[in-house]
Design goal:
The complex is a heterotetramer, with 2 copies of chain A (252 residues) and 2 copies of chain B (313 residues). Helix content of chain A is 65%, strand content 0%. Chain A is mostly helical and 252 residues long. Chain A has one domain: Up-down Bundle (Ferritin). Chain B has 313 residues and is mainly alpha-helical. The longest helix of chain B is centred in the middle third of the chain and has 29 residues. Classes of the chains: A mainly alpha (252), B mainly alpha (313). Chains in contact: A-B, A-C, A-D, B-C, C-D. At the A-B interface, helix 1, helix 2, helix 3, helix 6 and helix 7 of A face helix 3, helix 4, helix 7, helix 12 and helix 13 of B. Chains A, C: GO terms for molecular function: phenylacetyl-CoA 1,2-epoxidase activity. Chains A, C: One of its GO terms (biological process) is phenylacetate catabolic process. Chains A, C: It is an enzyme of class 1 (oxidoreductase).
């Protein structure tokens, strides 16, 4: 794999994470527990859709085959998606959505902080812009972990169940493969493993304050980064891509 | 008229805004609560037909625009519930009224969004009609309502342009897209005209509301204005308004248009629209399924406050 | 509209009813209340898929533009579907599925009995074949209306709620439009209104035995027959058509 | 050995079937219950990965074939639960064991079906491996199990041909379809080999089960047979088996093949496969949500019987 190809794959991962999680959050629109949350969830979704456009447009540029963000988002099938498994998991109840978000935000924040120092100016620029948004996302999802964890008995139970269910999808965030290693070598991106300690520190501190238990370390589900997804992604794409697939020569 | 009532009406006639803590007639308060909360409910229920296409929007940009628009509707609902709260009714009470089916909301949202063109049609026609209703209300007599309207109108006109832009893209697109656009206009035209409410002849309460300046123009006036504005827009992008009786009346300086099917209007209002049940059920489910979250947030806030107090003591 | 066009539309209605209801039933597969019901629901779905093929192939033949059943099923968008609203309603709980099925089966049975005497031999043949299957479907769904209506308090409540919810979609079954009238004129199909009395008789008798109340006559939802559907159909098609849309030149 | 045990073993050695009401050692009964119910559970859980594509099958014919296939699996589950019931355990008990996570099922169903080609691969490879396991069991010593196997094998071989047919269509289709087919083979090959269970050296209970003729061949024997049968089928349609160590060994008259990653096997068995939680949760949900229906059916049957009795009296 050439450096260029590795960079393309790496950018797809960044873009697809934002795309798929933004899509999941957008599913909440109109169904949130309170109007304030409709607003807030939509805000996060909008930021992520914006980031998707930036990453995937850059990916298309790097690929050099004339594909832009829309072509990449709407005309790849599931096996060509590179998002981590965590972000495609179903919304579940509000606790699941917030646990997923907190795990992702904490990692995303740390990752973007590193990417803001990337040798590739284009990456650094997108990361710096996204970092501002994600700082707020993290604040918010962390806050909900506290509220639900230390709220009522029911909310505590639901939040703990959500954490226990999603925990197995967090390992993938910190595993390096040849693409991550190529990025590290070129000074374009960080070593994923190096993000684990600060991430775990943040998670532990938050859980402690929220009276939640940290799950036992266990088997990590992996595969999303190389296109081996869960069965959920296909249904996301069936909706997401319907119009582009059904009217192939149209502009909108 | 009591002296209080007289001085209240004088302030209104002098275009001085009424503010929450001032004296106002009970009927004014009640009418305003009904009007503002109906408007708020319409924003909230109105999130559903458009929300139906968020996950299927055809490009990332369209997806973002649509999501932001539906988000704005939630925001409008919020402003309006706050305005209603200044009149002494809580958001929870109002939501319970909506959920129980007692409160009304704009009937237009009981129609389904069947294609992407419906998203264009809603922005263009439904928001267009809403603006027509709302612009005069920026000058309404109740301060908080008037100020909410000013914020809302600014955003709505933005939405309307975005909706028209969708329609234009479709009307200038492939034959399939053109067909989609025309079809959406066909389905949304008449319900949009109905949004202005019954003919003046059949409209109750209007005179009092106009005297109080919480209704500024008559239904028929606004409807005519909407038709006059919208017909040329349709023509400009090559779409045909589905009304064989529509024609320019040079003498009146307005478009003449056909009879509205008021039977359909009253059917939809009385609960028989294609989506009435679905809309209400979706709302009730969201509200009920969110209960434990709201309770948790309250419990957490209470604990936090108690801890802060304990520390301070 | 020419007679040929009317016939094409009429056949689409027959085919789309079977297609969409078959699809809905197939969603149950693996989720039914008992293995026996997994088997039975799949049986009905399979019959309906078979009927879809027969009706839509004939529709394509009548249209004469080279479209076969698969092309008609997989490459039309929602506005070109002609099924009645009843069949696209979500599965809900088992009571909703069975109430929907009973309303449909009772009508389908009466309709096919008439179509078996159609002047068009092709229609008569498909109807006669389908009638055998649908006789069994009706027996089965009627039986479940009895079991649930006269079962436990909970099942009675659920079945009554399902009936009340779906009732407004039954009016469309008996309303004639110009296409139905063209079929009647040509001796190809019955007057939909003429099916109402026997249908209502069957429903009433069943409800009485099942201790269920007949809903008040009310406003009928309509539109499916001319392509004005509920918001549910689009999502059905996004899944149903995904592969054909995503891989336009493939054979499977 | 007691006289009973001796006569029991003699019947088995003479290939006389054991029938439900006959005496049998407790361990034989228990082992059989475990084996049959595991097999039944596998059929039931196995409905999910394939069920995942029923609503998205690419043609009406493929949809019907797939639905009929998954339906057959429900039917197989039913035969097998009935066979197990002859040994004195109820279907409900067995289902509770499955739902509580106590009972095992074939680990292969804990892998996700990611593309349509996976439906082909499951039919070809997974059913292929299952048949390899099941064909000898048609001759097993317990009558009801043996007879269930005879019915099941007939249908499975049909399924396997259908799966291979899907793969052939894809392998001879567009480049994208070919890629899909090869990718599915890559993902399902090794899990299919693992379906035969651990290496004979590590396999517990085998000797006793073979003596009782409820296991006829060794795991490694069957695995070899499967490889020998499947490799030429892959070659025939131009797909490559993802094993660099695979090669024909003329001396042995068999294919040599690479080391199986038993770590993965034990991870999946112990609950860490990609879909273990999802599969179990889906099953539990279906069971729990169906409870009121089963109860209603029972209540109705009881009422009907009571009425019939009252009438007769």
């Amino acid at each position: 794999m050439s450096d260029q190809e590795a960079l393309f794959e790496y950018l797809l991962r960044l873009g697809d994470n934002a795309l798929v999680l933004g899509h999941r959050l957008s599913e909440w629109c109109g169904h949130a527990p309170a109007l304030e949350e409709d607003l807030a969830l939509s805000n996060v979704a909008l930021d992520l859709i914006g980031q998707t456009q930036l990453w995937l447009n850059l990916a298309g540029e790097v690929e050099g085959k004339g594909r832009d963000a829309d072509k990449l988002a709407y005309l790849r099938d599931a096996r060509d998606f590179r998002n981590i498994l965590l972000v495609e998991q179903p919304n579940g109840d509000f606790a699941v959505t917030m646990a997923r978000q907190f795990f992702f935000d904490a990692w995303h924040y740390l990752l973007l902080r590193e990417l803001a120092g990337s040798k590739d100016g284009r990456i650094a620029e997108i990361a710096a812009k996204s970092l501002k948004e994600v700082t707020y996302h993290l604040e918010r999802s962390r806050d909900w972990v506290l509220r639900l964890g230390d709220g009522t008995e029911e909310s505590h139970r639901r939040m703990q169940a959500a954490i226990d269910d999603l925990w197995m999808y967090t390992g993938e965030l910190f595993e390096a493969d040849e693409i991550d290693r190529a990025m590290l070598r070129e000074g374009l991106g960080p070593d994923p493993a190096a993000l684990h300690e600060p991430w775990l520190g943040l998670v532990k501190a938050t859980f402690e304050e929220a009276t939640l238990s940290l799950p036992q370390p266990g088997w990590a589900q992996r595969g999303g980064k190389r296109g081996i997804h869960s069965e959920h992604l296909g249904y996301i794409l069936a909706d997401l891509q319907f119009l582009q697939r059904a009217y192939p020569n149209a502009t909108w | 008229m009591s002296p209080e009532e007289r001085s209240f009406q004088e302030r209104i006639d002098a275009d001085i805004k009424i503010e929450p803590k001032e004296w106002m007639p009970e009927a004014y308060r009640k009418t305003l609560i009904r009007q503002i909360s109906q408007h708020a409910h319409s924003e909230i229920i109105g999130m559903q037909p458009e929300g139906n296409w968020i996950t299927r929007a055809p490009t990332l940009e369209r997806k973002a625009i649509l999501l932001a628009k539906v988000q704005d509707e939630a925001g409008h609902g919020l402003y309006l519930y706050c305005a209603a709260e200044t009149l002494g009714v809580s958001r929870d009470e109002l939501m319970e009224q909506l959920n129980s089916g007692k409160a009304k909301y704009s009937s237009i949202f009981n129609y389904p969004t069947l294609t992407w063109a419906d998203i264009g049609a809603i922005g263009w026609l439904v928001d267009g009609a809403a603006i027509m209703n709302q612009v005069p209300l920026q000058r309404c007599s109740y301060g908080p309502y008037s100020r909410a309207m000013i914020r809302i109108c600014k955003e709505e006109s933005f939405h309307q342009r975005q909706g028209y832009d969708i329609m234009m893209k479709l009307a200038r697109g492939t034959p399939e897209q053109q067909r989609m656009a025309q079809d959406a206009l066909n389905r949304w035209w008449w319900p949009s005209l109905m949004m202005f409410g019954p003919s003046d002849a059949d409209s109750v309460h209007s005179a009092q509301s106009m005297m109080w300046k919480i209704k500024i123009n008559s239904n028929d006036e606004l409807r005519q204005k909407f038709v006059d504005q919208t017909v040329p827009q349709a023509e400009y992008i090559g779409l045909t308004v589905p009304d064989p009786d529509l024609k320019w009346n040079a003498e009146r300086g307005h478009y003449d248009f056909g009879e509205i099917n008021w039977d359909e209007f009253y059917q939809v209002i009385s609960g028989n629209g294609p989506c009435n049940r679905q809309r209400l059920r979706t709302r009730v489910n969201a509200y009920e399924e969110g209960r434990w979250v709201r309770e948790a947030a309250d419990a957490y806030a209470a604990k936090k406050a108690a801890r802060a107090q304990a520390k301070a003591a």
